[in-house]
Amino acid sequence: MNQNRPHVVILGGGFAGLAAAKSLKAAPVKITLVDRQNHHLFQPLLYQVATAGLAAPDIAQPLRHIFSRQANLTTIMDEAVRLDLPRNQVELARGRMLEYDYLIIGLGVRTGYFGNDQWKPYTLGLKSLDEATYLKRRILQTFERAETVRDTAKWSKLLSFVIVGGGPTGVETAGALAELSKRIMAHDFRRINPALTHIHLVEAGPRLLPMFSESQSEYVRAQLTRMGVTVHLSAPVSEVGDAYVVAGDLRIESENIVWAAGVEGHPLVRNIPGIELNRAGRVLVQDDLSLSAYPNTFVAGDLAFVQREGASPVPCVAPAATQMGRHAGLQIIRKIAEKETKAFSYFDKGSMATIGRSSAVTAAAGIRTRGFLAWLMWLVIHLLFLMGFRNKIGVFITWVWSYLTWNRGARIITGLNYESADAASDSVLSAAQSITDQ
Amino acid sequence: MNQNRPHVVILGGGFAGLAAAKSLKAAPVKITLVDRQNHHLFQPLLYQVATAGLAAPDIAQPLRHIFSRQANLTTIMDEAVRLDLPRNQVELARGRMLEYDYLIIGLGVRTGYFGNDQWKPYTLGLKSLDEATYLKRRILQTFERAETVRDTAKWSKLLSFVIVGGGPTGVETAGALAELSKRIMAHDFRRINPALTHIHLVEAGPRLLPMFSESQSEYVRAQLTRMGVTVHLSAPVSEVGDAYVVAGDLRIESENIVWAAGVEGHPLVRNIPGIELNRAGRVLVQDDLSLSAYPNTFVAGDLAFVQREGASPVPCVAPAATQMGRHAGLQIIRKIAEKETKAFSYFDKGSMATIGRSSAVTAAAGIRTRGFLAWLMWLVIHLLFLMGFRNKIGVFITWVWSYLTWNRGARIITGLNYESADAASDSVLSAAQSITDQ
Fold first, then answer.
1. Between B428-437 and A129-148, two packed helices, what is the crossing angle to 10 degrees?
2. Catalytic residue numbers of B?
3. pLDDT at B430
4. Regarding beta strands B250-253 and B256-259, do their DSSP bridges make them parallel or antiparallel, or are they unpaired?
5. Of A95-104, A309-318, B55-64, where does the model show the most confidence?
6. Considering CB atoms only, which of B96, B391, B413 is closest to A38?
């Protein structure tokens, strides 16, 4: 390869980073893709891993494999720990310094607490594969513990789950958890009755899924209630502590508090001169997705905060991240060709959310559907966009199987030595270090 | 259920425990099955999880689900920590005390070091799902590390793997690792050439797989050599240290030393009056599999050491464990009916081991096969015995897919916070405790 080609560094192998890398496939550049994981994760199905519907490898694909035929790209499994934008450098956790001509930051967002980071130790996040696997283990262990508790009065506290946040993640998790506990697990336990499980879905605003119409939100609420989920609306969380949460006037005791209420930008972009952040730590970008102070640096995906005239900001969804990533890549091609960059324009493909078996809502191009048809659309679209033919087949068979048998194949508890998922994410860096130091 | 029925406690949900429980399905007893995991594990395919061929849930099945329709059985996810045989009691880690009329111990064996426990920290075991997952992560991370190392002289040490033990586990792991590194990974890396990987298989005895004929052993050795594995015979390990192993006259530097050389009995049965152990800590049983001092207690599976007249002891394989478990269950039925117990007799169904793609050896009823036909037999028999229709389909598709594409679907690194798999197994008890204490 020509060593004089411009070097493009892409941070993050999510939807944005992937699309950016692919858009540069035929470009006269060399690309380095950096991710601390070795895989791309299909985030929209993460809640199914957490509720034992799918196995982790079903929704992940090794980055090296995705790009094995893209000759101008090298993958590095490492974590960016410092950005030096004036010098065009990125420092990696294992000590290496990458020099770039163009930089695309697609590091995404993490579970966020609106400034209440003290709640973090008491809650379970759902943004990474490790968090999802940990949540699954907690859920399954909860039932195992309840089975061995002889004091039946304790069951009600033990078998109580709180999901904070009435967006798609919260709704989908609540629905899947209700099916898991009230239908599937109910058959397998002798002493406890998992149908006694209390699942609370807590939302600060007046309705669930605000991106849908009011009647769709109401449909979702009614469906969840029918499935046994207690939905609390207009109940902003004011306090989270050890095994309890205060939401509105309500205090709910629970050892399993799932936090699906907020996200914040990746910490790497904090306190960097020339990077302007909004309140949630997401990066304010130019209309071509570049930074005003550093025109060779682009931000794409959930981490980019893109204001639109006369419309809400571009949402944090996979199609938006893909469009931004591709746009950033194409602007780099234009810059190399010494052309003017173009403004990013978001094409809204619509929204969809599943509530459970045979039940979902969709809204696209003014057409709203719900119920079985919406659910089928949800299945088909998620299978189409899931990466890898092997994964598509595997997930398809698993779904057909689960539908026919009411069973879940992935109810296996592993890695009992996890103390907390937070520790997992925090210690990645030190683990990577200790590997290098060995 | 009639509370006056005799209480049978089964420790361990492996092949022996499962068969024992099933044999008592129609018996007038109540059964408590105790396992520290929530699943039955199909051990014979564990090496495929370690080499990224299969996902963990593919080869595991929740115990509760297996027995959801057996009304006389209750499953408890907990760990037995103390046996009080004179009082007919088992103490569990979470504090509960189980009283039994009959006890079946099917706790199996663990990775063992022939009294050299100081080698343990430097080796990777392959007896539990957590060990297999950890080994997979180590293998995949090794390649990721090598890709970022600029000093190519370091590659040879970094990409060196040692597998100690030339039995089925060692042979199958060496073959799968050779395929993974030399064929599959070779396509996906840019800088390193995974074909430079050195895989050493070290065996103390004069040939691999001593349960097969000499010509079959030689066939296996030749196949492995052709696949790029360096086979060292008559090379007993005399020392294992930090990133090296001394075997025979040879000193091999490697940070990945897989220990498939020995097992030892579960520690729970140690130092208990009335339980006699052999040198490897396996229990010497009466010919009906009961203990001479405690006729109401049976030991089944790998943990039982069953001497046979004019033949080698019953081997540690799944069919033997299943036969023993069933036998123990049936003897309890006889005892309840006040009949004499019968001696266990092992029916040898034959042996098989796979070396890699299209290559295996089998020996059954005097008929020996090798090559493609043997490999097909291996595939069919493992699919037949794998539990759960969903798992059978999933594994079948994965195998067909891998065969056609040379790809492996499960190359996903998760749980980067694992420090060691040993810590994993050691801390199960304290994890279970802290859960209860919460």
1. 70
2. 172
3. 31
4. unpaired
5. A95-104
6. B413
The phi and psi torsions of A366 (rounded to 5 degrees) equal: 80, -5
The b-or-e profile of A60-99 (16+ CB within 10 A means b, else e) is bbbbbbbbbebebbbbbbbbbeebebeebebebbbeeebe
Show Cβ contacts of residue B291 under 8 Å, excluding neighbours closer than 6 positions: B85, B274, B275, B283, B285, B297, B298, B299
Residue A290, beta-bridge partner list: A298
In a 3-state reduction of DSSP, which class is residue A88? coil
Question: Which chain B residue lies closest to A438 (C-alpha atoms)?
Answer: B255
Q: How far lies A63's CA from each of A144, B35, B224, B391, in Å? A: 36, 37, 30, 26
Q: Which residue has the higher pLDDT, A373 or B157?
A: A373
Q: Which two tokens stand for residue A135?
A: 């949540």
pTM of the model: 0.85
Average pLDDT over residues B157-183: 92
Q: Is the Cβ–Cβ distance between B56 and A414 less than 8 Å?
A: yes
| C-alpha distances in Å from residue A159, one per residue of A50, B265, B433 | 17, 37, 18
* Residue A255 annotated as catalytic: no
User: What are the start-end ranges of the H helices in B208-317?
Assistant: 214-226
Give the DSSP H or E segment for A111.
Answer: strand A109-111
Q: Looking at beta carbons, which residues of chain A come within 8 Å of B62?
A: 188, 411-412
- Tell me which amino acid residue B46 is: L
Question: If contacts are CB pairs under 8 Å, which of residues 97-126 in chain A contact chain B?
Answer: none
Tokens standing for residue A95: 């000590």
Q: Which tokens sit at A140?
A: 């399954």
CA distance A351 to chain B (A): 29
- Residue with structure tokens 């004929």? B213
DSSP 8-state code for residue B308: B
Residue B300 phi, psi (nearest 5): -140, 155
CB-CB neighbors (< 8 A) of B129 in chain A: 412, 414
Model confidence band, residue B63 (pLDDT cutoffs 50, 70, 90):
very high
What percent of chain A is predicted at pLDDT more than 90? 65
Structure tokens at A9: 């560094």
Residues with Cβ < 8 Å from B279, sequence gap 6 or more?
none
Q: What is the CA radius of gyration of chain A?
A: 22
Average pLDDT over residues B162-190: 90
Q: Are strands A80-84 and A89-92 parallel, antiparallel or unpaired?
A: antiparallel
User: CB under 8 Å to A329, separation ≥6 — which residues?
Assistant: A19, A20, A21, A22, A23, A24, A27, A104
Answer with the residue of higher pLDDT: A206 or B409: A206
| All domains in chain B, ordered by first residue | 7-111+264-336 (3.50.50.60)
Phi, psi of B421 (to 5 degrees): -70, -25
Half-sphere exposure of A92 (CA within 13 A, CB side): 22
CA A260, CA B31: separation in Å to the nearest integer?
41
Q: What share of chain B is helix, strand, coil (3-state, %, to 5)?
A: 35, 25, 40
- Is the confidence metric ipTM above 0.90 for this complex? no
Output DSSP code: residue A6.
P
Taking the C-alpha atoms of residue B329 and residue A233, their distance in angstroms, rounded to an integer, is: 55
Strand locations in A158-268, DSSP E?
A: 160-164, 198-202, 229-232, 237-241, 244-247, 250-253, 256-259, 263-265
Q: How far apart are CA B181 and CA B178, in angstroms?
A: 5
Query: Does pLDDT of A364 surpass 80?
Result: yes
State how far residue B13 is from chain A, nearest Cα, in angstroms.
14
Query: Quick one: CA torsion of B47, A36, A346, A383, rounded to 10 degrees?
Result: 10
DSSP E strands, A236-331: 237-241, 244-247, 250-253, 256-259, 263-265, 283-284, 297-299, 304-305
Q: What is the CA radius of gyration of chain B?
A: 22
